[in-house]
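Section: Multi-chain targets

For targets with more than one molecule, the full set of components is provided together so that the structure can be written out for the assembly as a whole rather than chain by chain. Components appear in the order listed by the source. The example entry contains two components.
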Amino acid sequence: MRRRGRRGDDAQAVLETALVIPILLFLVCNFIAVMVQVTVQEQLNSATALAAQSRFQAPENALDPAGTRCCGVPGTSLSTAGLPTGCRYAAESFYGTMTTYTGLLHWQRATLCTSGGDSGNAANPPAQPVAYAGSPTNAQVSCDIGSVKSGGAVIPGYVDRALNPPAGLDVVTCTASASLDFANTPLAWGVFWTPTLHAQAEALPPPFRQ
Amino acid sequence: MGGEFEGVVRPRRTPRTRGGQALVEFAVVLPLFLLGLIGALDAGLWAVQTSAEVSAVEQAAMVASSAGSSPTSETAPDARAVLASVSGRLRSALFGTTIKSWCATNASGDCAPDATQRCPTTPAQVQDVDGPRVVVVCVSEADPPACATPPAGQLAPFPAGCEDSPMITVRVVGFVASFVPPGFGPGARGFELPANISATTHTLRFAP
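Its structure, encoded as tokens over all components, is:
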């Protein structure tokens, strides 16, 4: 039987180290990536919740005058002329809160202002909200705000029939989706997944609006 | 005899040399292991702390937007009052870190009105003023432009947005403590983790 020499032992140790270190770094990278994902999801939830609540900080029937823009990133600002002011407030809150980790996010663009959705039940089919005329379609957040009276008619908000069933309640909903991309970070070395983050928030009108 | 075989047969490894090799291997692996362990612990700690900061600034923004001096107030409350409402939530997560309210003083030494607060925008700015392991809670207010008589052909209100309610921004910014003690990290002041979280909303008006 051949006895293994010192050189063989050394080679084995180097091989073991070469195997273990990448695995260790891979695990640490992925652990950090999960932590980043949790943190960004928290911030997305927070920004979406503030956006939904901001709708009620504007007068109910106010519309933005011509030339109004919001969320002023040069070249990508959104025109909100003719749209409910509450919708711009929602967008301003969202964009103003979602200021960190923006380099990691690829947004799924959506229509900024919609109205008239219905969660549905046995007697009422679910309905998708309809975009307000002139609403930008490249926003990072989409809010179903409703409740703006147009020519005397009330445009309904999103009817959530899980609240106060079966009639439901008109609520403001905001949604946002983005994928988290680690490609431009040092974590890209060991992180090969790109999770999609989604946040949805509902806000009920305050008592003086009900 | 010994000289005859020198260079042909290697001397057998003694327990002492084996012990030396194990020591060298251990010395190589230990820093890597500790780096991975502390990195994972700090990543977890960072996630917990950031989560607490996110929820705290959200709550603080809601407080600041609705806690004016009267129902029609358009002025944000003092940062110290806002900090008091969220300090418990922050202190439970940011252990080892000093939490302060940001106060830009005026000529008489009082906190300037919130509209003129200049919140720090990077953790380094806080570190320069207050040192490491300090985060500040800063409340700032952005007022809309004053309304003016619209020029011919334009409708009131003019300029656009002049009837808006002010926007309140609450920011938690600074360096928070981590598991690596001061002086042992890569930085001159330790290995603190940066925090820079903000929340923005309009002030609440009791509008119809």
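Chain B has four helices and four strands.
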